[in-house]
Amino acid sequence: MRSSLLEAAFAHHVWATSRVIDACLDLSVEELETSVLGTRGPMLETLRHVVFSDAEELFFLTGNVAFDIDEEHVSLAEARLIIERNGSGWAEYITRSLDPDAMVHEVDKTDGYQRWAPVGFRLAQALHHGTDHRSQVCTALTTLGVEPPKIDVYDFGLGTGRIEEKMPDA
Length: 170
Prior knowledge:
- This protein is mostly helical.
- The chain has helices spanning 7-24, 29-32, 43-62, 76-94, 119-143, 153-159, and strands at 103-107, 114-118.
- The protein has a two-stranded antiparallel ribbon with strand order 1-2.
């Protein structure tokens, strides 16, 4: 079976989020509350938000209630498990025959806010959203003197053996 054109993008998205969570698992409660000016907020809250939003996007796209989670009460270890489950959800979803212009309707449970957006935009948003917030958490890690994990797409490709590099002969 041929992989989806989006397979590498969503596999990287889940891998990178998992690596950032892994980099934070050994931090103290106080360190997880680190917030840097210009970012969303504390690292733990931001990571929960990334994982929750990712699951929520899958819920709106698939209707599968397994992706309808409660963000507030998720530990970092649980968030790690949820992002892995999200990875399986993305892998299954993007193998479908998708109409990028099909409209997806979302309704916020808390306040009734509604949005209609095409599938193509929702997929682009999921990837962008994760990248933006992972970067913010990595910035906060550096303020603690913690080396953030390498999470760019080429690091993913090298780590999974899907990209090869060779230095020119001297």
